[in-house]
Amino acid sequence: MGGDFGPDITVPASLECLQRNPNLKLILVGDETLLKQKIGQKLAAFNGRLTLQHASQTVEMHESPSKALKNKKDSSMRVAINMVRDGLADACVSAGNTGALMATAKFVLKMIPGIDRPAIISTVPSINGHTHVLDLGANVDCTAEHLYQFAVMSNELVKAVENIENPKIGLLNIGEEEVKGNEQVKTAAKLLEASGLNYIGFVEGNSLNAGNVNVDLIVCDGFVGNVALKTMEGCAKMIGTFMKEAFAGSLYGKIAALISYPIIKGFKDRIDPRLYNGASFLGLKGLVIKSHGGADALAFKTAILLAEVEIEKNVLQKISEQVEASLAMSQSA
Amino acid sequence: MGGDFGPDITVPASLECLQRNPNLKLILVGDETLLKQKIGQKLAAFNGRLTLQHASQTVEMHESPSKALKNKKDSSMRVAINMVRDGLADACVSAGNTGALMATAKFVLKMIPGIDRPAIISTVPSINGHTHVLDLGANVDCTAEHLYQFAVMSNELVKAVENIENPKIGLLNIGEEEVKGNEQVKTAAKLLEASGLNYIGFVEGNSLNAGNVNVDLIVCDGFVGNVALKTMEGCAKMIGTFMKEAFAGSLYGKIAALISYPIIKGFKDRIDPRLYNGASFLGLKGLVIKSHGGADALAFKTAILLAEVEIEKNVLQKISEQVEASLAMSQSA
């Protein structure tokens, strides 16, 4: 029900995902009458792979997380997360209010023992392919220990979804030299150096999209990560706008635009944010994927696909096992 | 002498600036023999507007600030900053080691009374024109009071160089709602609301290049600002690379590129980082402009031009007066 468009995009995205993957089962949680309307005759077509779960409430996009938690016990997001807790669903995908989704997920699912805080991880496009980044805004004042925990968890996620043995992990800083940065990143660097992880050192903001070094995973405080992510969005939007204005500014430009259209479309697809939609909440005892609130059906499909991959690759169990092993190691050390 | 190319770019940039502005006087500080070689016959042509000041040492690009301060007392940057202190120059422009330049400037020039920390400010392109941003990396752990001081100082700079009465000031945060963010920005917001400044509230990372709100000046912690600036660089580089690859990927693309070349050049010029080169150190009792180390002659010219504008607009005096007035106000309050 969440996001800017609700079932208008979540329903079509769900139907397409069901068509694409014959092993997928989806439970749509929300206003049953409305959902039935949107689905129409297709409900029966998927042989039980598409079911509905009624929820009488909806969390508004700007509702405070604490109010949602207290007053919306039958909201679509709460019911969906309850189903994850009760083993009735393997993951929850939502385009709803991020703060409320995080608070509800934390309250209902609880944290993996040994992890202090949940973190939000997603991928961004880069010259080398793409980069996984966390935290993107769940925490605004991380300690070095939190950053270390984020690295341990996300390392398992990246290993599983990318099929790589030792993801290269960088710590986001304002310089690559050891002396640079605040105490938080300097201490986190020491924790990462002492860990068995493939820590490659400090990386700078440009490494997110176009670093000199090849890095699979970048760890940072949620305040910094969120600013970086949105800076990227703004930068891409500015370049797109300037490009449009340049081509639209003259008859010659308009003709050049027509000729260049297939080329420009091809390169724009490589940075299409809809193909990077879906952020995972790490640290919880259940999979929760947050879609951008403004997602269209293509973007929401990407978020569902991410959930499918994380379920298939058993990401949650791998993280839990690794956290337990890391804790055992640090306690015996 | 500093930067990746030293006098190979600083000398040609200086000569062009002297040609453009007949009121400009430049003192080139560095290895006199080398500088004379690079300048050749042109030294006499400017009727004394171009002079040389010998300095026997050079600070290396990766030298530690403390070592440079201790061991390089006759470096080009130290001598140039000394000349600012002694009133022999109105500003120092350098492409050298940022940390060493900042440490030297702070040591030699001292802080404006009432300001705890210097900050680095520069402009970035935006859909609305451009945005001034600080701090870009001088401080990695600012308090709310520091952020407030940055706003007071930079407000004067923006008023002077942009000829506007009340610059719109935003505080960089991870959401626009009051409840969002860390304690540092929440407290800074209260200080700014209580000030006479035209504080418009929290802005997000996308506001740097392409915000929904029109903002002239964005204030943030140096860690966050530096990451954002470099993220922007990386994002622009990625998009440029993808575009090049798309056009170069086929014969059709190559032909389209030829046809679109003047259009693409026009829009690329709007985000050419060389036209945004030059960051001012605020809070010191003297003007110091830092050029990007990798600047070419065009970029270095932009940094010299920024110094010219700040001198002409009397930015330093305006900041000092405003800081004094703000302090008097806060003491009487």
How would you characterize this protein structure?
Two copies of one chain form a homodimer. Chain A is α/β, with parallel strands linked by helices and 333 residues long. Chain A folds into two domains: 7-112 and 283-313, 3-Layer(aba) Sandwich (Isopropylmalate Dehydrogenase); 119-274, Isopropylmalate Dehydrogenase. Chain A is built from twelve helices and ten strands. The first copy, chain A, has helices spanning 7-20, 32-39, 65-71, 76-85, 98-109, 144-162, 183-194, 207-210, 222-248, 251-270, 297-312, 315-332, and strands spanning 26-30, 50-54, 91-94, 119-126, 129-134, 169-172, 199-203, 217-219, 279-282, 287-290. In chain A, the strands form two sheets. The first copy, chain A, has an eight-stranded mixed sheet with strand order 3-10-9-4-5-8-6-7, sandwiched between helices. In chain A, strands 1-2 form a two-stranded parallel sheet. In chain A, helix 6 packs across helix 12. The radius of gyration of chain A is 21 Å and the shape is globular. The first copy, chain A, starts with 6 loop residues before the first helix and ends with a helix. The interface between A and B is large, with 63 and 63 residues.
Q: Which percent band covers the strand fraction of chain A? A: 5-15%
Structural class of chain A: alpha/beta
| Gyration radius of chain A, rounded | 21 Å
**What topology, given as strand order, has the largest sheet of chain A?**
3-10-9-4-5-8-6-7
- Largest protein-protein interface: A-B, 63 and 63 residues
Coarse morphology of chain A: globular
Q: Estimate the mean pLDDT confidence of chain A.
A: 93
Helix content of chain A: 40-55%
CATH class designation of the largest domain in chain A: Alpha Beta
CATH homologous superfamily classification of the largest domain in chain A: Isopropylmalate Dehydrogenase
- CATH topology of the largest domain in chain A, what is it called? Isopropylmalate Dehydrogenase
Poorly predicted runs of chain A: none
**Biggest sheet of chain A, open or closed, and with what strands and sense?**
8 strands, mixed
How many domains of chain A? The number is 2
What string, H for helix and E for strand, traces the elements of chain A in order? HEHEHHEHEEHEHEHEHHEEHH
Q: What is the end-to-end distance of chain A?
A: 48 Å
